[in-house]
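[09:14] KT: can someone run the structure on this one? pasting the chain below
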Amino acid sequence: FLCIDWEHAQISRERIEDLLRAADVHGVPAMVRVPGHAPEQIAAVLDAGARGVLVPRVSTPWQAEAAVHSTRFPPDGARGGGPGRAAGYGYRLFDYLAAANQSLLLASQVETAEGARSGAWRQDRAGNVLAAPSGALQWPRLNYVVSTKFFWGLDREGNAVNRKDTLNRKYLMQAIDGSLSRLQLDFVDLVFCHRPDPNTPLE
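[09:31] RB: done, structure tokens below
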């Protein structure tokens, strides 16, 4: 799959639709990272044919729930329907309305200081962020992906620490286990490992 970045890239809605059209020609599912939480932005990329959206800076359960409502047609959400590209410019509108709520992917990024200060990742409160959107979606397990991200080579203050043991399998597995425990999950599908300092050794 592809993720088209509308949050940081200087592209227009027209260019996004062009990129989605090109992805469809090659049979590659494409989602779009939208600039924020605005329902109009989410609806725009879904109407253009995106298979899903990535919503950045989700810091509260209410923002997560709002993202769900913005991607779902009534009665599951508040998205408005229209004759966009995804609906065949109106010719497949009713088919699209019937299938979209179960087929579209929604991913949220919890990445702000507000989210960290809220204690959302403490074990006793992890469900506050995860449970609300998951319960509203009611997706089968095969319909979503759980990912986690680690920054290797940094200490708690964000300073580079070039320790020999920074990147190896043992410490990676310990970090994943800790993340799953905090989120009250027993699985993770994708792990992103970032190395901000290129001098951090690899093992």
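[09:33] KT: thanks! Strands lie at 2-5, 30-33, 52-55, 105-108, 147-151, 190-194.
[09:34] RB: yep, looked fine to me
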